């Protein structure tokens, strides 16, 4: 049953290979490799301090990783040879008629969103609090509107091309507000919204940048059960209706187990498990990491962790 | 959807924010209420007045009671207790009146104001006020010549000065108010604009209208030059570097003697012309062409309309840009820089455009300043100018165009007004010179504004895009950006 679900190996949108991030002497992420399947909801879980947000910051360009390669395949398939060639050369990305690949570790954070199509949200919500909900979504369409306004000149002169683009941007914003059920609050300042609504607005804002991969940092944190259920529906519809792949960090196992197609478990910066929800749930290493182990099992688990970090566990299931 | 209030209280973040709000409302004081005093209103007021008078007595004894004069063999100390006693008595009386009638008064004095504020809530007060101000500004030369012909020239000159500061305030508002980047060296761009025009005009014989765009361009270029090193700086560091930049420009102007004339400045800067017509006596002048009698006031009216047009251009472009993606990105940058980057916005470009646009308008204003004065020297571009412009923006309310106008009129016009308060000499004696107290009054006004309106006169923000209904955003929600 697992085999047919392993979309991430067959058609990955994002491949993280040998990612290492050191802060001084601290190794936050240690030789981590995983794939995110196109059109999947992938969850990155692990105990506090496992390095999940660091991985996120590396993928979205907020940190430059110490080592490793992060590849985004925006559309179509690009051969391994081409990827190897791009890696050897100095370029950040390559676009061919068959598809385009981006080496995210070489790109600046805003370029990753702008041209590679990775959008993110933050663990502590970062909205433009003093701007209205509608304005928040318009800011997210900055680059499109900038081009339409001929880099401000056309906009200043009020050319029709810009006016059309501005109308279209507003329509897109309104459409997303309708989707996340915030349309009646479109003219309120974002900081005035209740917490759950702010979370939804942040997701809508990220989606306004037209991403292929949406990275959500604890989207269900601070939500009540009903809001979590609504979030699940929203994320599924983002995946199914818009074809956006989702990578999320989450502590709420209800959310993770219900919606994830693929789960990666980190502990102390290493991957300890990788597979479908059912495989990960029954993995003794995951149980050990979350619940701790009996004294007599400590050695065995430690040996597993160090000798073959994260390997073979992809097959999943109890060993 | 969740109810806003209950949802906010049930969650840690919401609850934390509520308790923070409550703490802010108490200004860090513990929530206790003073036990009501047993004294009657009169006794309490007398007590408070006595405490105030005592404080004033202690603080002012060395300034008022003693006087040193140069005498043979050194200094001579003389005692002048009358002045000291007068001021202590003034403090006592003032505090007593304040305590008895206002603080301990039967009726709260602010209630009347609150009623007025509540009844005008729905009106577009700001809009109406702005339109009235604009009409007055457009017809000011006519109004002055009709109603105050005797002081026409003086008041017109003052209006030109005020409008120069309005324009500078609007220019700085882009950088500080919209983009939220604290700039303490704005006068540098004013200086660049002034010197660009002066040097181009005196060396290459170019006129005002040719030099104006070039001066703006040079200033914008220097805005970008300043922008680059401060891209990574925040808060206090940003303020210090911009402050230093303003001083560097002034000191270079002062010391590069061969190029700028150093402390001697530049003389003989030409006056602007109206399509080649000069405002002077004789052949080919404005009055000659239109068959009018020559009067110096014509040139003042012309200058007035130039600066009015420049200021209105600044306002128009700024208001327009606010509704464009670049302006929205400025405000987003002020709200949250990291979120901006996560949305694919190149914050380097956003900061540089803010610096360049603000500097360009500073450059325009500078070249107008040069043509109005006919003479410039580094003396005119000291740090105090930057401070005044920034004070105008902060007092007016960051990001508010109308606030800048009000603050300029009050700060520049108000200080000038002090010169005319010669009537006060009847009270304080012939030696009293009100202009000597202008910095004191200036400081006092700032303190009062910061106590009553800490976010400036006009502190609300109006959204740049509207779906159904335009709602004004309160100051408490709007971020102030870096360095505040």
UniProtKB/TrEMBL annotation, chain A:
Domain ABC transporter, residue spans: 14-293
InterPro entries: AAA+_ATPase, ABC_AA/LPS_Transport, ABC_transporter-like_ATP-bd, BCA_ABC_TP_C, P-loop_NTPase
Pfam annotation, one family: BCA_ABC_TP_C
Coiled coil start-end: none
GO function terms (MF aspect): ATP binding
Stored Gene3D superfamilies: P-loop containing nucleotide triphosphate hydrolases
Keyword vocabulary terms for this entry: Amino-acid transport, ATP-binding, Nucleotide-binding, Transport
Similarity section: Belongs to the ABC transporter superfamily.
The protein, known as: ABC transporter ATP-binding protein
Naturally occurring in which organism (per UniProt): Jiella pelagia
From TrEMBL, chain B:
Transmembrane spans: 49-70, 82-104, 125-148, 154-172, 184-201, 207-230, 237-257, 297-318, 387-415, 435-452
NCBIfam families the UniProt entry points to: PRK11301.1 (NF008450)
Amino acid composition bias (Basic and acidic residues), ranges on this chain: 13-27
Name under which the protein is recorded: High-affinity branched-chain amino acid ABC transporter permease LivM
Bilayer disposition of the protein: Multi-pass membrane protein
UniProt organism field: Jiella pelagia
Subcellular location, record wording: Cell membrane
Listed InterPro entries: ABC_transp_permease, LivM-like
Principal cellular location given in the protein's record: membrane
Keyword annotations: Cell membrane, Membrane, Transmembrane, Transmembrane helix
CDD domains: TM_PBP1_LivM_like
Region (Disordered): 1-31
